[in-house]
């Protein structure tokens, strides 16, 4: 009898009773929509588990009493569902993960929860302590230092995945520490940003992925500082292959109230997305040999489900 589980080329056919989300968490398209109801419901479950509402860095978005000050104690928090998706797509269980700009608890918690031992470097002691406390009993380590000094903490070719959502220049100012990238001029920011991002290349094993989540920022003249294209150029210069380019569509939130004013004042559109830049170190032909086929939720994922 003909094997109906294979197509004409001998490749597996997706079970018609399952959706792409069953296989890949969300469809593996270049647009990821965080407004989707299932995404939002799962994110709420993650947020209850992680319990990071920006307690360790309140008010960094400014306008404490205004619209932005009412969101996560006035700070931005990584989307836990995004962390989960990236870990499922670009890592395997047991892979070690590294974030040179650890920031909030989210990525480290999700990585450790999914049995990917995590190491993060965070400049602010109070943030590093808070993150470590949230992850007690989990394989997540937070080092308080500047990632400029990552050589003292991270062995070369010891990590299976590099992830970071670095500071968007001075869009959020996290401290008054002169080593904090968010306190620097844009010129100094890019000098240190380059040094840290490019040093991750030596820490990553061969045939592994790195992901940087970023967005654009305007200077005091209203011009974009080209954070996105410069990030791509810096990573490629370090030796990475620019492999995937995704857009993360965020909830509208207070954007309509701000975008109208910006449009009338200077014809600036309200930015509703972030850029997910995926890089690869090694030979892309080896990917199929080093990463498992993504299948519907199996016993492993069901046992680690929310």
In whole angstroms, how far apart are the ends?
40 Å
Number of domains: 1
Major sheet: arrangement of strands: 1-7-8-6-5-2-3-4
Percentage of β-strand residues: 15-25%
Characterize the biggest β-sheet. 8 strands, mixed
Please report the total strand number as a whole number.
8
Helix content: 25-40%
Observed structural traits:
about 300 residues; alpha/beta; Rossmann fold; 8-stranded mixed beta sheet; 8 strands; about 15% strand
Structure commentary:
This protein is α/β, with parallel strands linked by helices. The chain is built from 10 helices and 8 strands. It has a single domain, classed as Vaccinia Virus protein VP39 (Rossmann fold). 32% of the residues are buried.
List the helices and strands and how they pair.
Blueprint: H1 20-24, E1 31-33, H2 37-50, H3 80-90, E2 97-99, H4 106-113, E3 118-122, H5 125-134, E4 140-144, E5 159-164, H6 186-203, E6 204-214, H7 227-238, E7 241-249, H8 255-266, E8 273-281, H9 287-290, H10 299-303
Parallel strand pairs: 1-7, 2-3, 2-5, 3-4, 5-6
Antiparallel strand pairs: 6-8, 7-8
